[in-house]
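Hello again,

I reread your note about wanting to compare the complex against the isolated chains. To keep things tidy I'm splitting this into two emails, and this first one only covers the full assembly. Below are the input lines as submitted, including protein chains and any nucleic acid or small-molecule components. They are followed by the predicted structure of everything together. The single-chain runs will come separately.
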Amino acid sequence: MSDAHGHEGHHPNLAHHFDNLDQQIESGKLGMWLFLATEVLLFAGLFCAYTVYRFTHPEVFEFASKFLNTALGATNTLVLIASSWTVALAVRSAQLGERKKTSILLVLTLLGAVGFMTIKYVEYNHKFHEHLKWGLQFDPANSLPQKEHWDAWNAKHAKEVADAPTERMLASKAPTYEVSEPGDDLVASSTIVVPPAHVAPTVESEPTVPGDYDPEKIRNVHIFFGIYFCMTGLHGIHVIIGALVIIWVLLRNIRGDFSPEYNLPVDLAGLYWHLVDLIWIFLFPLLYLIG
Amino acid sequence: MSETKDSHGDHGGHHVPPAWIFHAVFVALIIGTVITYYASTIDMGRQVNIVVALAIAVVKASLVCAFFMHLRWDKPFNTVILLVSLGFTALFLGISTLDTAENEWRKDPGYAERKMQEARARQGISYERDGHGAKETGSSGGGSHSGGAADAGETHAAEVAAKAVKQFGVLPKEVAPKDYPLTDALVSLGQQLYWETRMSKSGTISCNSCHDLGRFGVDGLPTSPGHDGTLGGRNSPTSFNAALNVAGQFWDGRADSLEQQATMPITNPIEMGMESGDAVVAVLAGIPGYVEAFKAAFPGEETPLTFANVGKAIGAFERRLLTPSRFDAFMGGAHELLSPQELGGYETFVDVGCATCHTGPGINGGIEKLGKAAFFESKDQGVFEETGKERDRQMFKVPTLRNVTETGPWFHDGGQTDLPQVVRIMAKHQLGKELSDAQVADILAFLSTLTGELDSKLKAKPTLPQ
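Full-complex prediction:
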């Protein structure tokens, strides 16, 4: 067969700098995997921020995580897993030359993408309304679930709160110089216990936010939301990019560009989509299932 | 073009997995998600929960990589690329976590205490509490060394004294001004003006009313009433050792010098309430004794009786209001004056970090943020009230700790009446530390050594000119 180049005997998709289609396909895959490695490292930076901050302020994460809707997060996980399944099947059917089936599977994958972004939109919208945002814009005073959060948090930490008599510390006579008898060891007197490090004792300051939320009890909750929006936002951008790539591949498939010999673009689009799914597999438990 | 064919048909030689594998992986992923969810509802302890969730996530990820992403059937090098990227990620997160873990000790309230104990143990001194407090200044706390040799205690005290002198310096007898000579005539005029109630609207308030020389330079009230009884907004700072303030006068440092500060309460409507500097001058000009005193204090000036000179005289007097304390004597060589608790208290004071702000001969500091380490609610926004700049919010001058045990109530609003609580609040909000009872007790013992007295001549009320 000849083509517009006037060449004879090679596959129309074979690019000239490759010896054969096999090499081209393997190179394409290699290149894609190298790119995926960089994507892993991209998200690694954000995961590092997450790790360090959660390590130093576990109470912030425990508390703030309750503002997230676990049901929606779980649904999104299932949606992405399903779309990963359909795109893997689409790659398979492209390899088998089943053009129509490939198109259907790619459309189903796109439906998954749309579903994911819709749920994400609902979640973000809710957060913006409730002022559960990053930085100084964080203001959960009007956030409905906060009483539940405090009840859940208090129930969990009731024992620790009981052991940290912060009101007593304020109201009572704190020890004078004569703290212990000579010869006593240096353990503090038994009636006053230093609260555990992650429970910040309340000092005589009124909460600056009306309602149940007490900024003295748990400080800097907005940092959790900064991390949350950064990570899920970047991930959401990747979902959109992935969806656009899949649309492009779908159109090419409808046009008849692919064959059992050459279906690399479907494969590579699938790889990208799987990465998006992989990242979410880690994001979901780390953000939504704390505490 | 590849020549190989296999049972799956001609597709370029690439392995086409059977569909059931994908279905199986899909089901496994769903199950994994469900397990993850339910595992998170069981409280296995924070660490275990995270490990379980991540372990399941890793299993799911492996299934996706191996089967959905074809790594199982691909060239192995692709897997190597993935593993290398994961390896570097692990390195990144791992080393960052190690670094973070190092910082966790700062949250340990007993850290400084333990370190001090270890250091003392190394020097062979056993640490004994003798319960001496401010009421018993000068008692023989120094005699209660036990365990280690008295020599070791003596050397230790000498070491501490040497360090303390580097920290606090030597207290001068007076703080000489830069631009005028501090003469006795000027100082005695200033002393008279300090007690002069005729410089107030009601005729009953003088500097001494709120900065009582008989009470360590304060009046013992949270805030002080003015000529008509209106209470001020801030606690009256002590005039004792005010000459050593490095960051100006007032709680926000807005007066550059003692001389400038001295004039401001006189014309402040809620303090002494005089209409203006001219009104003050008019009152004083009507008292012949003052006319003479000003001439003597400001020789060579054509009109010595000015409002600025009133401030200058009072400022000059305040420059001699310095109170050498037991701790100064200790630093000067009388090492037996401090008990082990007080010595340890000084060390705690430095270890915990108090000395980063409360330092120098005045044991005071510059302008710092109230609530540096942990937010402190304060209606009074400090320097911001003066400048209106956002970055000046809650910035206050670090006050002197000399005579602090006697100059309560404490803080800029006089809001704290319990000194141990003051120490705890400072540690928590300025240093981010939770102090143990032992640490608080030791610090208080040290603070009690900073109490000193004025020369009786400076303290006494002079005869006022008529």
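For quick reference: The longest strand of chain B covers residues 367-369.

B.
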